[in-house]
Amino acid sequence: MYLLPSLFTACNIAAGYFAITQSLQGSVLEPHHFDYAALAIGFAFAFDGLDGRIARMTNTASEFGKELDSLADVITFGVAPSILAFSWGFRMLPTGMDPMLREKLIQMGGFVCFLFLLCGASRLARFNISHDPVPKNPGRPDRKYFVGMPIPAAAGVIAAVVHGFQGHPFNAWTATLWLALVGSVGFLMVSTWRFWSGKEINLTNRHPFQWIVLIGLIIYLLLFFSRIVLLLGALAYMFSGVLARAAYSRRRHRRNEQSASLTPPVSSTGHTTE
Predict the structure, then answer these.
(1) CA distances from 162 to 17, 151, 194 (A)
(2) In the chain, N or C: fewer CB atoms in 10 Å?
């Protein structure tokens, strides 16, 4: 029974390794390899979620399993998406463009993709040593949140964009947008902003019939409209953390203005004036 969770973790690593090999094989003439790499990262989500759940259900959780799961996440959700982001978004830039601009974009792209990997590894290290962390912008007390964007979700943004374009590489101008997106996702991972975790949802309890209909609808959309659904879902989760942070800053600014307006002014003698 102790081998069962580790087998799912091994499948997680296998998906990441397959994504890396497909990213290296992709080209302008064979863009389906990039699409396969994105799909492999997507399938790794299931393995990553099942290994921990199975370990808790079978009471076989161990320190070895936790360390192996963290290393698997670095490979599958750190190394694999960073190589995919670089190979698809920068290495495949058209050779007919200005050589100097192409070289600069490839160099900047390689650096930003490395930062994505570094931020992902730092995010995992912080998660492993944190106990009940509190984000800078606390949310509702009845919900549970991650501090910083989790690395599987960050990898999901990379994979969803590649899958949304069916693996066809960018041109020179859209590569700059890709550069900004990869860098932004890396920053969100090491930020202290809140991202909804969904851990308060318990699927083992009894649920109304409407839940079955909703789950069936989601499965249908994923099967027949996966490109647009996964892309919108990944971007929506990414920007949810940004909007939550902006809303919290706006509310705090308003509270500071209200408290300042209620505080009586102080005269030059040190006494408050009425």
Answers:
(1) 17, 17, 26
(2) C
- Are 145 and 196 within 8 A, CB to CB? yes
Write the single-letter amino acid at 19: A
Spatial separation of the C-alpha atoms in residues 152 and 201, rounded to whole Å: 19
Spatial neighbors of 134 by CB under 8 A, at least 6 apart, are 147
C-alpha dihedral, 11 to 16 to 18 to 22, nearest 10°: 160
Cβ neighbors of 149 (< 8 A, separation 6 or more) are 123, 185, 188, 189, 191, 193, 195, 238, 241
What number of helices (H) and strands (E) belong to the chain? 9, 2
Between residues 260 and 147, the one the model is more confident about: 147
Confidence (pTM): 0.87
Token pair, residue 234, equals: 């990944």
